[in-house]
Each structure stands twice: as structure tokens, then as C-alpha cells.
Specification:
Blueprint: H1 2-16, H2 41-71, H3 79-101, H4 106-121, H5 128-140, H6 148-155, E1 157-158, H7 159-163, H8 169-172, H9 180-201, H10 204-225, E2 233-234, H11 238-254, H12 263-281, H13 287-307, H14 309-312
Antiparallel strand pairs: 1-2
Length: 319
């Protein structure tokens, strides 16, 4: 009982500022303190060197596979699939390279670990609104899991139907997906990224998610009317995901004291990775919706920072 009380006190301090854990060293077990092995001087160097070797090993593997596909005369992959695989490989390679660059010291790695520990250990309170949205999206499909086409014909953002005055489809289309795989992929990525934004923005994060997804659907519809693309249907909340990712990238760049050192490099590389990876895996993915959602996320966070100028020191970036 005493240990639980200590843990509760530590957790409350932890919630106020995740960087407080940087002052906690390795302590005896069941003390309620946060324990990070990288804070233990006797093993920190070994752990960091091991992690660094693993990252370099991954980079070498990606580079070897890239060269094999590029000069292997398409032994394994067909010509039409080789480009897609190379694009995926290059995106992942660049992400790992930038991630390694952003963690040049064991202190940086330790700080990153402590931030993730706080975000995901205490993420239950952050993801409740997101869980409700995921459940609502899933319930739309429960009567027609065997006939997904019926679902998006009833609720999807079909351009021709919207032109006829069914503007509500621009909103309902956010919660409709092309199948359970599409639904699972979108919300898996959201559950990974969303808590990192919510920890500093709170309820504003869910507003950015919904409004960003709606903005991407509206942009898709207006650009189709303008003749810039010939798409007929848009489904899913992926535009909102890119709004959240853009907001996280912008916030971690403008207010670097809120996140671990060089964290914006990771989020920026993730943005590039997901933008190109999605298109490479599925050509039907709408880059217009993703990019418009990303633009909305940048604008939204800049407006929030402008309103909260005194709190975030918007014009004073931390080196």
C-alpha cells in the first residue's frame, strides 16, 4: 500500500513534466521511482553502443538489399514491382539514418526513452476519445463486413453524390474505410502518433484530427471539381492522421523544450516515410488528401502557437 502511494506521487510529478525523470537515478526496486538503465553509469555506455551497432547493422542490410535489387537484373522482383519496393526501401533507410543522426549520444537516447515511457505508460487517459472514434468507425461496418461496397455507397464521400447536394458524405466518409485492413492500419498509426501530440495539446489534438480529416475530404472534392484529378471516391481518416503528424512535427520544431532533443527530425522523417510508403504500397492512396491534411496540421498548430505565444515562446526557438 505504501509503495502504491509513492508510485502515485511520482506519477503525478511525472505527468506535470516528463523531464523530471531525468533527475531520477537507478534506485532500489519497489521504490516507486522511474528506473532507466541508461542513467546507470556502469552499463550506460555498453547499452548505447549495442543500440548503435544494431542501427548500423540495419542500415547495412537495407543498403545491401537496395544494391541487389538495383543491379540484380530483377531476379526476384518483376520490373513493375521493383520500383515500389525500392521506394519503400529508400524511405525506411532514410528514416533509420535520420533516427541514428538524432541520437548521437547516450543522453539523447535516454531522454527519448523517458519521453516514450511517459507517453505510452500513461496513454490510457490520452486515447479514450480516439478509442471512441475508432469504435464508431468500426460500428459503421458491422452489418456489412462481407459487402464493403454497400457501406461506402451508403456513407462514403462519393464525388458525384456530393455534387448532387449530399454534403454530409464529406463528414461521414471520414469514418468509412475500404475494409478492416484499411481501418486497422489507419487507427494503429493514430494510436502510435496521437498520444505524443495529446500530451502537450490535450483536447485540441482530437479537434485537429477530426477537422484535418474533414479538410482533406473537402479539398479532395474541390480539387476534383477544379479538374486537378479524376478521383471519384475518398474513404478513411488518413487525412486526419497526417494532420496530427504535421502538428507534432511543427510543435516539436517550434517548441523544442517540450520534446526530446532533435525529436522533430524523427517526426519529419516519419512524414516523408508515410507519404511515399503509402503510395508505393497502394497506388489508389490519395496523395492529395494526405498532403492537404498535412498542410492543415501545420496551419492549425501555428495558429494555436500564435494564440498561446507567451506560453510557448513561439518566436524563440530553443537550440
Amino acid at each position: 500500500r505504501k509503495t502504491n502511494q509513492i508510485s502515485k506521487v511520482k506519477k503525478n510529478r511525472f505527468v506535470k513534466n516528463w523531464k523530471l525523470t531525468s533527475h531520477l537515478l537507478v534506485t532500489e526496486l519497489n521504490s516507486g521511482n522511474f528506473i532507466n538503465p541508461l542513467r546507470c553509469s556502469s552499463i550506460a555506455d555498453q547499452l548505447y553502443k549495442k543500440w548503435k551497432r544494431q542501427q548500423i547493422f540495419l542500415l547495412v542490410i537495407f543498403l545491401f538489399v537496395f544494391i541487389f535489387i538495383l543491379f540484380g537484373n530483377n531476379i526476384v522482383f518483376k520490373p513493375e514491382n521493383s520500383f515500389k519496393f525500392l521506394l519503400c526501401l529508400v524511405s525506411i533507410f532514410l528514416f533509420n539514418l535520420l533516427n541514428l543522426y538524432s541520437l548521437l549520444t547516450k543522453e539523447m537516447l535516454c531522454e527519448r526513452n523517458e519521453f516514450f515511457s511517459f507517453v505510452y505508460v500513461d496513454s490510457l487517459s490520452f486515447i479514450r476519445p480516439l478509442s471512441l472514434i475508432a469504435l464508431a468507425s468500426l460500428l459503421i461496418h458491422y452489418q456489412s463486413l462481407e459487402d464493403i461496397q454497400f457501406t461506402y455507397q451508403q456513407f462514403g464521400a462519393i464525388v458525384e453524390n456530393v455534387k448532387q447536394g449530399e454534403y454530409w458524405r464529406l463528414f461521414s466518409g471520414v469514418f468509412v474505410h475500404s475494409g478492416l485492413k484499411h481501418w486497422f492500419l489507419n487507427f494503429s498509426l493514430l494510436f502510435m502518433i496521437y498520444p505524443m501530440l495529446n500530451v502537450n495539446l490535450g483536447i485540441k489534438s482530437i479537434v485537429i484530427l477530426i477537422c484535418g480529416a474533414l479538410f482533406s475530404h473537402i479539398s479532395y472534392f474541390l480539387l476534383q471539381i477544379a479538374g486537378l484529378h479524376d478521383g471519384e471516391l475518398l474513404l478513411g481518416i488518413s487525412g486526419g492522421f497526417f494532420s496530427v503528424l504535421a502538428s507534432l512535427t511543427t510543435l516539436s520544431f517550434c517548441c523544442r523544450h517540450l520534446y526530446p532533443d532533435r525529436f522533430f527530425i524523427v517526426t519529419a522523417s516519419l512524414s516523408i516515410l508515410f507519404l511515399f510508403l503509402g503510395k508505393a504500397i497502394n497506388p489508389k492512396v490519395s496523395m492529395i488528401a494526405h498532403i492537404s491534411g498535412y498542410i492543415f496540421g501545420i496551419i492549425a498548430i501555428l495558429l494555436i502557437l500564435k494564440i498561446r505565444r507567451e506560453e510557448t515562446n513561439f518566436f524563440k526557438f530553443k537550440n
